[in-house]
Fold this protein.
Amino acid sequence: MMKQILFSGVIGLFLTLVGTPLLIKLLARKGYGQYIRDDGPREHASKRGTPTMGGIAFILATIAAYFLSKLITGYPPTYSGLLVLGLMSGMGLVGFLDDYIKIVKRRSLGLRAKAKMAGQLIVGIAFAVLSLQFSDARGNTPASTKLSFITDFGWSIGPVLFVVWALFMILAMSNGVNLTDGLDGLATGASVLVFGAYTFIGVWQFQESCANAGTLTNPGACYEVRDPLDLAVVASALMGACLGFLWWNTSPAKIFMGDTGSLALGGVLTGLAILSRTELLVAIMGGLFVLITMSVVIQVGSFRLTGKRVFRMAPLQHHFELKGWSEVLVVVRFWIIQGICVIVGLGLFYAGWAADK
């Protein structure tokens, strides 16, 4: 069964390594290039016209890798895997429409704010509602109406509040990845680290699943997750696909992911967190996205309240660029921060399991 994880990761990596250059040529031929903010660092002016909407590459590669790994190994897809892929695709479609209008229709703001929000709400509500369906033999649905950190805790918040909570998470994380995607390879590399961690979490939850309680040394420390192994297969496909895309997205980037990619990555990361019962832990695992989002909140809040800016420019990565750091230096150091967040998150995840032994 573990072969699925290996196959999905390798196939995802191969498809984006080979497929992204073809997408670059197609986008360049059609003139689908990136607009650059005039108030940003001067060095970014040279990026104007670089092909964008590159998220298409790793979205398609992830979907293909998932289903090919199923075809090769003979294991059927699960509801959890399909729901997470559906959330990624739906959010990616909203981002694609935004990118398409922005670039092809020459309208700088892309989708109207209300239309973009409506699209995200429709996708998010569909995911949240469907994730409470499809019980397995043990009565577990893909998602739970309880809040979770390392596992579910507390009382059920009910289906309505769960949908609201899921929407908040999806919108917050999608916005976080979107804000992070401002430097070559920054969001892509950070995502590789998080998806690698979720591959490990899925494998661990599968090995310590309550469905196997009869063979576990400590059944009291088991996990009630519907399809943990399949979530690991999706995470592995994403890790491989993003890693292959990073080859072309790293400085100097030959292609940008655009809102197509950033909204998809934020959505699928939230989906993995909700279905693996690690909803609050994802705030630590995706700590870089949270940090960069908070820098924008602080900047806007400070300016509105006091008329003064805390940072030279928000999001945070541009603050350090304006302080004189090179783009590559900012990216690598932010990757290190993200790596520390992942290590802390995995440490807390393991500590929670060990504490229950």
Summary: The CA atoms of residues 202 and 229 lie 5 Å apart. Strands lie at 146-148, 152-156. The chain is about 65% helix and 0% strand. The mean pLDDT is 90.
